[in-house]
Write a structure and sequence with these properties.
single chain, about 130 residues, mainly alpha
Length: about 130
């Protein structure tokens, strides 16, 4: 069975076909409406990548929802910020708390979530590299 790949130059057609379903999917998983809208916009900006990868039309919906899921899972800004400030800049939690006006315990919690997220993502990548 031959799968036909069609160039999808009509982005507006794809947006109208999948936009509302994707928006609902994202909104259920993201707290702020603005974040959900940003994720949806970024998702549609990645459509040309699907063409470059020659993703078959019948797999387009799966690809769109996978990309959406991955964007939702990216590190929240607050978690990424505290991780970068402590690990890359070497700032202590107390100093970050004074700068941002956020309690030290909140910063510790945010960093903990960032580390857990990174550990999960890196474990998957590590497993893929070993089994390649």
């Amino acid at each position: 069975m031959e799968i036909q790949v069609v160039q999808r130059a009509n982005t507006s057609g794809i947006v109208s076909s999948y936009g509302s379903r994707l928006a609902g999917f994202i909104r259920k998983r993201v707290k702020r409406l603005e974040d959900a809208e940003d994720i949806l916009q970024e998702l549609f900006y990645q459509l040309p990548e699907a063409d470059l990868l020659m993703i078959p039309i019948d797999e387009l919906a799966a690809w769109l929802f996978t990309v959406a899921r991955n964007r939702i899972a990216d590190l929240p800004t607050e978690q990424r910020e505290v991780f970068e400030l402590t690990e890359f800049e070497g700032l202590p939690f107390k100093e970050i708390a004074q700068i941002n006006g956020v309690p030290v315990n909140t910063l510790i919690s945010r960093k903990s979530y960032a580390v857990l997220y990174l550990r999960e993502r890196l474990t998957v990548l590590y497993d893929e590299l070993i089994n390649f």
